[in-house]
Amino acid sequence: MTTAYYTHADCKRHEMGSWHPESPERLQAIEDQLIASRINTLLDYRDAPLALESDLARVHTPDAIYRIRENCPTERSDYAHFPLDADTSLNAYTWRASLRAAGAAIAATDAVIDAEIDNAFCAIRPPGHHATSKEAMGFCMFNNVAVAAKHALDVRGLKRVAIVDFDVHHGNGTEEIFNHDQRVLMVSFFQHPFYPYSGAEQPSANMVNVPVPAHSYGNAIRELVTEKWLPALREFKPEMIFISAGFDAHREDDMGQLGLVEADYAWMTRQIMEIANEFALGRIVSCLEGGYNLSALGRSVIAHVKTLADLE
User: Fold this and answer.
1) How many domains are contained in the chain?
2) Domain extent at residue 139
């Protein structure tokens, strides 16, 4: 199998302060683990291009795009960071990094649909699944997975796509963007009650949200995937699958209180691949979301990517 690895140095230039958990070191930790595991030479490395504003506009309002583009401080500014909310801010490189992140997801989508590659992992930041159509929030600027899914539907002509979100936090932005869009099935689990305190009440019919309590471990997650996700995905028959790949449900990650380990991420990836192979010609694009314990993040991404590349 050919698995592409999309990233760009610009994604490391966006930072929100030395104290912030969503740091450039996250991408370095992944790269270090790729080298240590000796699978780096087996992946198809590709530079993430810049998304166009028209790509973002399929998902986000003009005001949401303007707010990011026009509020990034200049390199010579006295202000290193411009706050959007209590935990999300812009620096001089945020706009370009955000375009690279969305651009990676779009380029990977095109390459998979064109059968240049079998699947792809996008090592990108800022992450995206909290970004709604109207606002950035929760460390996220633009919703990378949503932008790519819209591209697959509206530009490439696919009729049905699925989004799988296994971040510890609910992907509220993705749900808001695709709420009641019957071309999209979103399946997710997330710790609840927990930020952003959404997703558990009256989701639309195209959302399979499974809130789980703190201290849920891998056996509980595997059970819900088997009983909730897989039947819904098989009934929907997606033509492509996008993954919001957050690794902050790992037991070593203090951002949440769930108990997954690397083997759980590999297992979930295998289940998603089986659905993709059955209905979607194997087409998968996975985009990095959360994951803040650097060691656990690196190890978990390796488990995920090795499975995608059939290198287990």
Assistant:
1) 1
2) 3-308
